[in-house]
Specification:
The protein is α/β, with parallel strands linked by helices and about 240 residues long. Helix content is about 40%, strand content about 15%. The strands form three sheets. A six-stranded parallel sheet has the order 7-6-3-8-9-10, with helices on both faces. The chain has a two-stranded antiparallel sheet with strand order 1-2. Helix 2 crosses helix 3 and helix 3 (about 80-90) crosses helix 4 (about 100-110). It starts with 17 loop residues before the first strand and ends with a helix.
Length: about 240
């Protein structure tokens, strides 16, 4: 059963990941990186380190995504690092810091290089790979950040490609971002599934013809105005169980 919001892509194989009988095993899993694989809670400590309120971290990251989406809608594009640094400068300059603003921005940004994966990721990635499913990442951030994250976790060899929208020229959730990943992997949308914690990413992938799995680790409520996920799971290990 294809998503009602998007027609199947040309060349879609008949064995779709989702059917009237329930989810079938996809041939390719496309993982979001920031917050889906990475635990970004330590970024709060980076803000606190420089004298800023730790709860600024969530608002800053949400604003960063908003600006990336806005540029994409307007037909523009900018690398994640440029937007992150620029928006962080705007946010931090409103506060009294314990060091010069450029040093504070650098300290917070350096936090991306120290993030770890969520506890369920190593076992979940191993279980999914053991099912014979191809695993790749598709991030609005740089591929180098994903490489460092997965390398530190010892799971980099589970993923055959680490893809970035910087090579697509548009941010997710633009259809061209998902199309870029499918083209790089040589598969049609109908046999791929996006895995993400962000409902906006789930919606974008569904509209691009992919099946979707929403990782709901904190028991949140999925917004009714977005295309619903084909699967909802509490962790990557739970996802592997559901696809077995």
């Amino acid at each position: 059963m294809t998503n009602g919001n998007a027609a199947p892509a040309p060349g879609v194989e008949p064995d779709l990941p989702v059917s009237v009988d329930g989810p079938r095993r996809p041939r390719l899993l496309v993982f979001d990186v920031n917050e889906t694989l990475s635990d970004m809670s330590p970024m709060q400590g980076r803000f606190e380190d420089v004298g800023a309120p730790p709860d600024l971290a969530a608002g800053w990251f949400a604003g960063l995504l908003r600006d990336g989406f806005a540029l994409t809608v307007a037909g523009g594009s900018a690398p994640f690092t440029r937007l992150a640094t620029g928006s962080l400068t705007v946010v931090l300059q409103r506060h009294v810091l314990d060091r010069p603003l450029p040093e504070a921005v650098e300290h917070v940004m350096d936090g991306f290089a120290t993030l770890t994966v969520h506890p369920d990721v190593p076992a979940g990635a191993a279980a999914l790979a053991a099912l014979g499913i191809r695993l790749v990442t598709l991030s609005n951030g740089s591929a180098s950040v994903a490489q460092g994250l997965l390398g530190r976790a010892g799971v980099g060899d589970r993923f055959e490609q680490l893809l970035s929208v910087e090579d697509a020229g548009v941010w997710k959730p633009a259809p061209a971002a998902y199309a870029h990943a499918l083209e790089r992997c040589g598969v049609a949308a109908g046999v791929a599934m996006l895995v993400a914690v962000h409902p906006w990413d789930i919606d974008g992938a569904a509209r691009a013809g992919l099946a979707t799995a929403w990782v709901n680790r904190d028991g949140g409520t999925y917004p009714g105005y977005f295309s619903p996920p084909d699967l909802t799971c509490t962790s990557l290990t739970d996802l592997a169980d559901r696809l077995t």
